Automatic annotation (TrEMBL), chain A:
Domain of life: Bacteria
Record InterPro entries: ABC_transp_permease
Subcellular compartments: Cell membrane
Bilayer topology annotation: Multi-pass membrane protein
Transmembrane segments: 80-101, 108-128, 148-165, 196-217, 223-242, 277-295
Name of the molecule in the record: Autoinducer 2 import system permease protein LsrD
Keywords: Cell inner membrane, Cell membrane, Membrane, Transmembrane, Transmembrane helix, Transport
Length: 310, 483
């Protein structure tokens, strides 16, 4: 039940294979994984925020900012690659930190905080570029998103790190905070710090995804557009409860693969890419509605014997 | 006017009311008393149509009625003024009174008719301190009660239930409420008046009914009983439950926590020593500051002045680091992350405090007698008793020196109750200092090595182990029952 999303994923991959058997070959499959990698990483980051009971709507704009800033600062200069990469990660961290601090300490709902951050970042990019990004990425920079092995390796490393993190003390206390903040606080959990860190993780994930997309999709002011919704859709598709406290990061990443498979399928059957938004909208509403309807039915009545066990 | 006959009610197979009969005449104030959990609220909710009884009949003016929905009860003329007022603070008095039943003219709300009728009702109740256009949020609690009563009158209620109406009133407002109740009587209404306070019962009511453990103890004419008799009727019960033996004097160890002259907004001049190996019971009426004291010791609602050795915690983390734990009153809201596993809940404190994950979770779960000791199950599927054992396990992972229990067996079935009692005593015997709050006096008496009584935020006195319920009640409610 927890990993039902992978059944859906396999079915979708089978449907893709029917139209285009190339995906069954290692090269074809890896190409699919590479394409999905940035979204998988974003979904992993978004998972931490959603499981703590919040949202991060700023990741799409952050991806755009990362790519545009990278192109401008590197401007084809190979030597600048590594310092800029470090700067990009720091930028992701900083944006996450601001999101987290505003949400927790100033008590602005994260929906509003990160929506505001999204607008601020979009506006800043537009102001800075005048609508047309300048500069160019270096060859070394492009490898991370373009080279299949690099892209898949980064994704695997991020995925494994995310899984380990959810099993570590931090992840367990984060999920408990998302489930019942009051109980967590009265158990000694530093709920504010824990939540802020979730936003930082999401910001870092967006930075990594941005670095990969820069190489994969190229430099444009639209590169991150709509990714925040794709990430949230992926997480919800993976069965993670909006509102927090429930769901696995593996399923959230599975949700990202599934969403990418749906996009691929739409593409294969020549359906307009514009429908991608419609599809995500339907998925989000349907998944949340289904979750709401199913909850009472899925709740098993306590087994006999439990009640009086002593 | 009202007659409830042989009412039975169970929740999840647990009988909460059995064979209860209650009458109320026009122009009568009928007081309903009993300890917490006696069944007063459930009985009133049946009358209000919130719950449906399994057996028994309700009739009004001799006509049998069945209430499937609160609206049915409202139409039959029953109104309830709950302890927590249910008004909309941003709306005007008139809008609140006619909420959901606004008079209309040509499809639009007829404000002037609404305000006119509200004025009339206020006048009838002798209320002149505010008008129909005032925002409810700006009114005092006493004034808001008047609004609630207007609301009841506007639907032609003839039976009014008042659930502890003076609980949140200031002293001078109580007099106003008395006037109001008398006016309602004069209008020929039947009033069911729930209260803990002896003085009000004797001042206002003509008859009094005592409930205990979901059963009817007695209905008497108020003029024919004394306060002491009434207290005895409320608490007198046999100790049917076995409690573990108390600590022998040599088992009591050194003072672990010492509090002197401590206080905050609700607590004053608290002097309190907690000893290793000793269970200190804490009694007090609702609103006496019991939970506040627990939270102050635990740093959740810290003391703002006074001394506490070895440390006066300013935060929960400081308290936990100093070896203090709190088993909260409200398990679901404050104790557990319900959708997480037993293991994750049991490890929450040790993880939060960076003490690593105890490898011995399973052992702990057996130690608290969780059955089955399965760390993978989600705690929301456990019974109340098993959930409480998980909370205990959570604290035992960090081996606190002081554990505060706020209502440790609330919502716990009898079997698990005994197990929890034994565990608490076991922890004390191993050298833990225990502070235990309970509104169930038999439990408090059965468990405590000494009993402290809290009244209006102050410690009113200390009683030896095995004191009677009457003694405790008298001390807890001294201003009323001293007579």
């Amino acid at each position: 039940m927890k990993y039902a999303i992978f059944v859906v994923l396999v079915l979708l991959l089978a449907a893709i294979a029917l139209a285009n058997p190339f995906i069954l070959e290692p090269a074809g499959f890896l190409a699919f994984v590479k394409r999905a990698a940035p979204l998988v990483i974003l979904a992993a980051g978004q998972y931490f925020v959603i499981v703590s009971g919040e949202f991060d709507l700023s990741v799409g704009s952050l991806v755009t900012v990362e790519v545009v800033v990278a192109a401008r600062l590197i401007d084809g200069n190979e030597a600048a690659t590594w310092p800029v990469l470090a700067l990009l990660l720091a930028l992701g961290l900083l944006v996450g930190l601001v999101n987290g601090v505003v949400t927790t300490l100033l008590r602005v709902p994260s929906f509003i905080t990160t929506l505001g951050m999204m607008l601020i970042l979009s506006g800043a990019v537009f102001l800075w570029t005048g609508g047309a990004p300048r500069g160019a990425l270096s060859q070394t920079f492009r490898i991370f998103g373009r080279d299949t092995l690099y892209a898949v390796a980064i994704m695997v490393v991020v995925g494994v790190a995310a899984v380990l993190l959810t099993r570590a003390t931090y992840g367990r206390t984060l999920i408990a905070t998302g489930d019942n903040e009051r109980a967590a606080a009265l158990s000694g959990v530093r709920v504010t710090r824990t939540r802020i860190l979730a936003f930082v993780i999401s910001g870092l994930a967006a930075a990594v995804a941005g670095i990969m997309l820069g190489g994969f999709a190229g430099v444009s002011a639209q590169v991150g557009q709509g990714l925040e919704f794709s990430a949230i859709t992926a997480v919800v598709l993976g069965g993670v409860a909006l509102g927090g406290g429930r769901g696995s990061v593996v399923a959230a990443m599975g949700g990202a693969f599934t969403l990418e498979a749906m996009f691929t399928l739409l593409n294969l059957y020549g359906i307009s890419g514009a429908l991608e938004y419609t599809l995500q909208g339907v998925i989000i509403i349907a998944a949340v509605a289904a979750g709401a309807v199913q909850l009472p039915r899925l709740t098993p009545t306590p087994r006999k014997g439990d009640a009086h066990a002593s | 006017m009202l007659s409830m006959r042989e009412i039975d009610k169970s929740f999840l197979g647990v009988r909460v009311l059995s064979d209860i009969s209650l009458d109320a005449e026009a122009g009568e104030v009928h007081a309903l008393v009993g300890e917490n959990g006696a069944g007063k609220s459930t009985l009133m909710k049946i009358l209000a149509g919130v719950h449906t009884p399994e057996a028994g009949t309700i009739s009004i003016d001799g006509v049998p009625v069945t209430f499937g929905h609160p609206l049915d009860a409202q139409r039959a003329g029953v109104a309830i003024i709950y302890q927590e007022l249910t008004l909309l603070p941003e709306r005007s008095v008139a809008e609140n009174v006619f909420l959901g039943r606004e008079p209309t003219r040509r499809g639009m709300v007829d404000r002037s008719a609404m305000e006119r009728q509200t004025s009339k009702l206020l006048l009838e109740l002798g209320e002149s301190t505010f008008g129909p256009r005032d925002a409810v949020g700006r009114l005092s609690v006493a004034q808001q009660q008047v609004v609630e009563i207007c609301k009841a009158l506007s639907v032609d209620a003839r039976i009014i239930v008042m659930d502890e109406p003076t609980a949140s009133l200031a002293e001078h407002e109580v007099e106003l409420l008395y006037d109001l109740v008398r006016r309602l009587r004069e209008r020929g209404m039947a009033i069911l008046y729930i209260s803990h306070r002896m003085r009000e019962i004797f001042d206002l009511s003509q008859r009094v009914t005592v409930l205990k453990d979901g059963a009817l103890v007695a209905t008497r004419n108020t003029a024919d009983v004394t306060q002491s008799e009434l207290v005895s009727l409320m608490v007198g019960r046999e100790l049917s439950h076995y409690y573990p033996p108390r600590a022998a004097p040599e088992e009591k160890g050194e003072v672990v926590i010492s509090i002197r002259g401590a206080g905050n907004a609700t607590l004053h001049d608290i002097d309190l020593d907690l000893r290793a190996g000793e269970i200190t019971g804490l009694a007090g009426l609702q609103g006496s500051g019991r939970t506040e004291l627990a939270k102050a010791v635990f740093g959740a609602e810290p003391f703002t002045h006074g001394t506490m050795t070895p440390l006066r915690p300013r935060s929960v983390r400081q308290a936990i680091a100093a070896g203090i734990g709190l088993v909260t009153e409200d398990r679901k809201a404050e104790g557990l992350a319900l959708r997480q596993s037993v293991g994750d809940n049991a490890l929450l404190v040790s993880r939060a405090m960076g003490r690593g994950t105890a490898a011995r979770v399973r052992e702990l779960l057996s130690r608290v007698r969780l059955a089955p000791p399965d760390p993978e199950r989600e705690v929301r599927y456990l019974s109340g008793g098993n959930q409480q054992k998980v909370v205990l396990a959570k604290w035992m992972t960090v081996a606190p020196r002081v554990l505060v229990f706020d209502e440790p067996t609330r919502g716990v079935d009898v079997g698990a109750k005994a197990a929890i009692h034994e565990l608490i005593r076991e922890l004390a015997r191993e050298g833990m200092a225990v502070l235990m709050i309970s509104s169930e006096l038999p439990e408090l008496i059965g468990m405590s090595d000494r009993i402290l009584v809290l009244r209006e935020g102050r410690l009113a006195g200390e009683l030896p182990p095995g004191s009677s319920e009457e003694t405790i009640m008298h001390l807890a409610a001294a201003d009323e029952a001293a007579a």
